[in-house]
Amino acid sequence: MQNNENINEWINWIEEAINKKHIKYYEYENFKNIQEIGSGAFGKVFRASWKKFDHYLALKSFFNLNGITLKEIVNELKLQREVDFHDNIIRFYGITKFESENKIDQTKSYLLVMEYADGGTLRDYLKKNFSRLSWNDKYNLTYQLACSVLCLHDEGIIHRDLHSRNVLVHRNSIKLADFGLSKRIDEASNSQLKLLGMVPYIDPKVLSNSDNLKLNEKSDVYSIGVLLWEISSGKPPFHEETNKISLIYDISQGRREKIIPDTPNDYSNLYTECWNNEPNKRPSIDEVVNRLRIFISNPNIVTIHQQNDISDQTDPIVNENVTPNSTVSSFHGELSNMIHNFTNMNTNELDNTTSINEQINENVSSKNNFNIIVNEIVDLINENASSKNNFDIIINEIVDLIFQKINEGKAEKKSVLDYLCNHNINLKEIYNWLLNNQDTSHYIFILGYFNYYGIGTSANKEKAFNLFINASEQDHILAQYFAGDCYKYGEGITKNENLAFEYHKKVANQGYAIGQFKLGRFYESEICVKKDLKMSAYWYEKAANNGDLVAMHNLGRFYKNGFGVDKNHQKAFELFKKSAEGEYSSGIMMLGYCYDFGIGINIDKQKAVELYQKAANFGHKAAQYNLANMYKKGEGIEKDLDKAIYWYEQSAKQGYQNAQNKLRELKNN
């Protein structure tokens, strides 16, 4: 009864954590196309799509969700947070749960929601793709693998279960998995289920247990050595070996796989050093990474291992200190221990055929163990909440920054990237966080914005458009604005200027300059509406009054030329001046033009040159042309034909026809 109370207390607690959004929760019913893609000693892995998105996620289940497993799930989440930034480590996204249809047993099965790796396990990937892999491809795979393990070791984490079924591949890149659960569940539950199947990857010092050694960093290096061999061969180590018990003994005595013909010597030397029987003779993971880096950067220095060298390096027993009598005695003693250990195993752990619908949580063994679990998860949840609050602040500030820049008529992408850089924010990290926190319109919009510009991911205009539409349906102003732009330019959706007009009109009618300016452009350029300069001036004025620098410039143009309004040079000058004060390059150029020709102000050639120069430095091609004219004529500045030609050339490079004509004229003269 006490155990039932404990497990119910756990369920209530985790439900509360989900309700408070400390852990990202995914509704199970929103997963589509669920397909089993793997099964291990502790559970199954399923691939599933989320809602209408084409993005796949992985669901990781557990056969026996008991106290030990719960505690190690906590450990997995803690370790995940420490290495979450690394590109070659699989990401944890959140939790979902499947509720049993059994009305009597209301136990819920919790599943981890993880990053999906499209290439499957390294073992499967090599089986399918090995014939197409060049040595450069193999070097890159091994380098990524070693870097991921180096990341763990730098954070004080030992993987302790490295093998080709725990290493995944996504888009031809390594993704290390299970570094938390694999580290402790075996040990905590006294499980040795995986020992037989994974013997070739396990540190032989631990197999023989001659010095009561425990798995450590050099044990991971040993496993790396075996994996390097596997990547060079395309096959699992000792895959034809049937007597696994005998294999354990042989490996503990020094037996290793044969070096594959045509393997580069430097590469085979590295992995044979890694699988040395003596841990202190193995290289550190730092050295492994550095040597692999050299292989990648200098592939030509790597020499090839010839086939006739094999016999010198493949003696199955390399421990010269073993005598026949000690061999037999040692083997029988170790075999007896192994049989005893396997006999005492928890038989539930051998059942790997349970379906996702039959997974049932086991009772937590003791109140003390449960309290430890709760305390550890409280710490983790506090960290998660802090992380969420930090990202929430960042996202809100980015949205405000985008709104401010666009509302002023300025390009905003560089400002966003500068903000992220100045705050030391990893682009991929914040992108992945957004990917799994789509519960506010701000988050949805920013994920769309990142996809639109390729921030933290490859640019995907179609995905961006769908996210903009999603957020715009929640009345997000910026999302409506960007959805309008997508329709206007045909980005991520078929071009539809009528719908573009409607989206921008919706923003304009809510009093925002970003939409008001767009309507002014529609009416001026006769885009899907009849040309109407009065309506254009009307919307430019509204946008200008709301701080849009481009609208100020455009309205100044209208007053200068009498487009849709009575000609008024004084108003034109004031509008150009305001636009220039906001550092809008066209506003600066036109203010210089006013001083150059006395529009709304007395002529001041020196002031005109100063303003032309400023706009030219911003890359404004008309300002560059005007500045060249000033140098050519010697107006407002000392005459200098070389500088005139320079600025004509800068303008001409940008396609300014007047500058190109002027250069031809100077050349002919």
TrEMBL record:
<dbReference type="InterPro" id="IPR000719">
    <property type="entry name" value="Prot_kinase_dom"/>
</dbReference>
<dbReference type="InterPro" id="IPR011990">
    <property type="entry name" value="TPR-like_helical_dom_sf"/>
</dbReference>
<dbReference type="Pfam" id="PF08238">
    <property type="entry name" value="Sel1"/>
</dbReference>
<dbReference type="InterPro" id="IPR001849">
    <property type="entry name" value="PH_domain"/>
</dbReference>
<dbReference type="InterPro" id="IPR001245">
    <property type="entry name" value="Ser-Thr/Tyr_kinase_cat_dom"/>
</dbReference>
<dbReference type="InterPro" id="IPR017441">
    <property type="entry name" value="Protein_kinase_ATP_BS"/>
</dbReference>
<dbReference type="GO" id="GO:0004674">
    <property type="term" value="F:protein serine/threonine kinase activity"/>
</dbReference>
<protein>
    <submittedName>
        <fullName>Kinase-like domain-containing protein</fullName>
    </submittedName>
</protein>
<dbReference type="GO" id="GO:0005524">
    <property type="term" value="F:ATP binding"/>
</dbReference>
<dbReference type="InterPro" id="IPR011009">
    <property type="entry name" value="Kinase-like_dom_sf"/>
</dbReference>
<dbReference type="Pfam" id="PF07714">
    <property type="entry name" value="PK_Tyr_Ser-Thr"/>
</dbReference>
<dbReference type="InterPro" id="IPR051681">
    <property type="entry name" value="Ser/Thr_Kinases-Pseudokinases"/>
</dbReference>
<feature type="binding site">
    <location>
        <position position="60"/>
    </location>
    <ligand>
        <name>ATP</name>
    </ligand>
</feature>
<keyword id="KW-0418">Kinase</keyword>
<dbReference type="InterPro" id="IPR006597">
    <property type="entry name" value="Sel1-like"/>
</dbReference>
<dbReference type="GO" id="GO:0005737">
    <property type="term" value="C:cytoplasm"/>
</dbReference>
<keyword id="KW-0547">Nucleotide-binding</keyword>
<keyword id="KW-0808">Transferase</keyword>
<feature type="domain" description="Protein kinase">
    <location>
        <begin position="31"/>
        <end position="296"/>
    </location>
</feature>
<feature type="domain" description="PH">
    <location>
        <begin position="1"/>
        <end position="19"/>
    </location>
</feature>
<keyword id="KW-0067">ATP-binding</keyword>
